[in-house]
Design a protein that fits this description.
single chain; alpha/beta; Amidase signature (AS) enzymes; 2 domains; 20 helices; 13 strands
């Protein structure tokens, strides 16, 4: 008589035990309960005593390009670097639960090979020589399943590596971990019943975002200098914001996606929003550096979905910035209103031209994006859950994805959505990017010809508590249009800002969800919550966005402290 199939609970217990067994006993935190009361755990790797002075130096003192140079110049061996980041990733896992697959032994062996290659050949094997790079769980690697948060997939072996990891390895990278995603990569909070909840290193009471939340949490702990995520509605940008990092969503046809797992029906991605693959890092410089390296690796030669491209970095000049603070779908809570004003002032002080803009087509564009996201319905997701013994939906999805929710819609609906997309895309192209087009008038700021970039929030609210991210109303439209977007962190919410009043009226259902987060009993969690801005560019002009991210970050760093004190005095 055969045994009954494992329940999702049993699979989860087995998967977590298997993962945790890959952490060497000497790398386990001594007396872990010592840290249970801490909200911000970013300093624990330095204070816990597990990392040597050399390992602290390696993981804290270098950017990714500087570390690759240090390895190539033999200041550090690849083994020393790999060991340092493996140990720090192990510490991060124990504090914020950010890993799904751990393969430290493979990483150390790979690093030994790279050291031998450098010694024998006198040159690095490639432009990423010796750099440990972490991967979102969805990237297929042989012997390391891509569960994407579903118990049913926890032990399904990947037999063929995804194109991107193969490209990274040929460039000299060291792969050592895969990171958590929410269930099906569908949530904006990284939680699944398979792996549990990923916590935000800056405050474990806050969400780490989703769906690349494990990547962002690991990078924020400096258990990785460079993490690779995916973005279909904000899944790189939202976690980057939550964890105080830079994230970049390229134009979708620039980076290889072949071999990445999803929760969709086979081929379903063609019916949804364009998916982008991109980096999460502590600096804009690292995002630009990584994309330049990928350009040189010519990914279009190995992935049919990638078109040939060149990253044209513009000559440094003053930017013409269109600032979007109202989209007709969701307003801004008071701290975010303050941040947007501060960034405007900082850009003006740096000599950039700042123009307030509105986009009348935005609500229609957002509705079209939602239409594409729900085009195939929920059936396939529920089938995966049922097959694992009725695995429940994660909390964020529970109230947003009903068993009898949107059904699959046919070709006619897809054609209608495509027509709507073409309409809004053409109008926004003319109004925002057309240098031959119309200019700002005294009576209307709806049409501004020839801006270099658009600056807007990542959300209407700062980083919220668990399961409280309101929606993709500030992010998904840029996926619909397939425009490149970067996130630049600005600052955290100040205590005094929690006393600010929320004026005005709601503009709709999405705004209602945002405004509820300002209820007195809810808003207290915002103290110290990260906030940032999106830098949006024209399709294919990714170099403009990467350069602008650095310029915005530079301006934000130079915000006069007197200005901050002045603003606080008004609260």
């Amino acid at each position: 008589m055969s045994s009954p199939p494992e329940t999702w609970r049993e699979i989860s217990i087995r998967a977590r035990a298997n993962r945790d067994s890959k952490i060497p006993p000497s790398w386990l935190l001594k007396n872990p309960t010592t840290y249970s009361h801490l909200s911000d755990v970013t300093s624990v790797p330095r204070s816990c005593g597990l990392l040597t002075p050399l390992e602290l130096d390696i993981t804290e003192s270098y950017t990714a390009p500087a570390l690759v140079s240090a390895i190539s110049e033999k200041k550090f061996t690849a083994v020393e670097v790999a060991t340092a980041f493996c140990k720090r990733a192990a510490i991060a896992q124990q504090l914020v639960n950010c890993l799904t697959e751990i393969f430290f032994d493979e990483a150390i062996e790979r690093a030994r090979y790279l050291d031998k290659y450098l010694e024998e050949n006198g040159k690095p094997i490639g432009p990423l020589h010796g750099l440990p790079i972490s991967l979102k769980d969805c990237f297929s690697l042989p012997s390391h399943p891509s569960s994407v948060g579903f118990s049913l997939r926890a032990f399904l072996p990947d037999t063929t590596p995804a194109t991107l990891p193969t490209l990274l390895l040929s460039s000299g990278a060291v792969l050592y971990v895969k990171t958590t995603t929410p269930q099906g990569q569908l949530s904006l909070d990284t939680h699944s019943y398979l792996w549990g909840r990923t916590l935000n290193p800056h405050s474990r009471f806050l969400t780490a975002g989703g769906s690349s939340g494990g990547e962002a949490a690991l990078v924020a702990m400096r258990g990785s200098l460079l993490g690779i995520g995916t973005d279909m509605g904000g899944s790189i940008r939202i976690p980057a914001l939550c964890c105080g990092l830079f994230g970049f969503k390229p134009t979708s046809t620039m980076m290889p996606k072949e071999g990445t797992e999803t929760c969709e029906l086979p081929g379903g991605r063609a019916a949804g929003l364009p998916v982008s693959v991109g980096p999460i890092a502590a600096t804009a410089e690292e995002c630009k550096w990584f994309m330049k390296i990928m350009e040189g690796r010519e990914p279009w030669r190995v992935d049919a979905g990638v078109v040939p491209w060149r990253l044209q970095i513009p000559v440094k000049r003053q930017l013409k910035v269109g600032v979007l603070k109202s989209n007709g779908v969701t307003g801004l809570l008071p701290p975010y209103q303050s941040v947007m004003e501060e960034v405007e002032v900082a850009l003006c002080s740096a000599g950039h031209q700042v123009i307030p803009i509105t986009i009348p087509e935005y609500p229609k564009a957002f509705a079209t994006a939602v239409g594409f996201m729900t085009l195939l319905g929920n059936r396939h997701v529920y089938n995966l859950l049922e097959a694992a013994g009725r695995e429940p939906l994660s909390p964020w999805l529970k109230d947003r994805m009903k068993p009898k929710g949107p059904k699959e819609r046919g070709l006619e609906e897809m054609v209608r959505l495509s027509h709507d997309k073409q309409q809004v895309e053409q109008k926004m192209l003319k109004e925002l990017w057309d240098r031959e087009g119309r200019s700002e008038t005294k009576d209307s700021q709806e049409v501004v010809g020839g801006v270099d970039i658009i600056l807007c929030p990542v959300a209407g609210h700062p980083t919220p508590g668990h399961d409280n991210w309101a929606g993709v109303d500030w992010t998904a439209v840029w996926n619909l249009l397939d425009w490149p977007v970067g996130v630049v962190p600005v600052r955290k919410v100040r205590r005094g800002e929690l006393e600010m009043e929320l004026g005005g009226k709601s503009v709709g259902r999405q705004d209602d969800a945002c405004r509820k987060l300002w209820d007195p009993e809810v808003r207290q969690v915002f103290e110290g919550a990260p906030m940032g801005v999106q830098v949006v560019g024209r399709k294919g002009m990714d170099g403009d966005v990467l350069e602008a991210m650095e310029r915005v970050a530079e301006a934000v760093r130079n915000i006069p402290r007197t200005q901050e004190r002045k603003r606080e005095s008004k609260i």
